[in-house]
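REVIEWER CHECKLIST
Item 1: Sequence provided? yes
Item 2: Single chain? yes
Item 3: Sequence as submitted:
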Amino acid sequence: MEKANIQSIDSEFNQRSEFNFKYFEISDYSNLTDEDLTNQLKSFADLSQQSSTGNKEVTCFFYRKKTVGGYADEIRRAAEENEFGGIEGSEKDLVAKIRYRISGTEKLQDILIYKNNKMTKKTEFKN
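Item 4: Structure as written out by the authors:
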């Protein structure tokens, strides 16, 4: 099976706890089914690691890797100005989103897969 390549857009930014958002670029996923991509994202994003910032909610965005330039200059503005954290003008490049929430002792995780700016699959997990 093909394996998606996932890289942090800005690892320093993603380490900060001041924002509830983390941003990644993803490539080599186009031949994967939604189910395979969901499984790979679940393996990539360890719930306890992503939630370790102390935030009750964290959203990770996975954008299609750009061949020229990138999203690094846009993520701070997105986190500060967009209450939902998405990069304005790059909606068509959004491949997936993972939302983590801690409710009491329960950890909840949603993985959402997008194609052509529309959600095609939503999978929920509880720990």
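Item 5: Key structural point noted by reviewer: The chain has one domain: 5-126.
Item 6: Recommendation: ____
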